[in-house]
Amino acid sequence: MSKLAQSLKVVRGYVLLEELKNESSTSFSVEDDKEIPQRGKVLVVGDYIWHDNGDKYESPAKVGDKVIHSAYGYEIIAYEGKQYKVCPFSKILAIIK
Q1: Total-model pTM
Q2: N or C: which end of the chain has fewer CB within 10 A?
């Protein structure tokens, strides 16, 4: 367990991400009015949550995974001089293999 994970617990339904810079690439087709999804590395994963229908929903990503997440719907926090993103499970769009 990392030092960060020992000192910072993320609430249920969220992950803590370290921002990864988007690569300059022509493989993305972006319309003028849309934001490019963001990339991040998962540092801490919060506990599962329960949906209204009773289903258990766990994080689609685990610590160490690199993910693509929505350009909206996350919070930026500062902790020990660094900035991190706190993102809900539902905003993780893909796991980079």
Answers
A1: 0.82
A2: C
* Predicted confidence (pLDDT) per residue in 38-66, tens digit: 999 999 999 999 989 999 999 999 999 99
Instruction: Give the residue from 36, 30, 34, 12 showing the smallest Cα distance to 90.
Output: 12
| Pairwise CA distance, residues 31 & 27, whole Å | 13
Query: Which structure tokens are listed for 44?
Result: 């801490």
Q: What is the pLDDT of residues 16-36, one digit of tens each?
A: 999 998 665 545 555 544 567
First to last CA, the chain: 22
3-state helix/strand/coil string of 62-90:
CCCCEEEECCCCCEEEEECCEEEEEEEHH
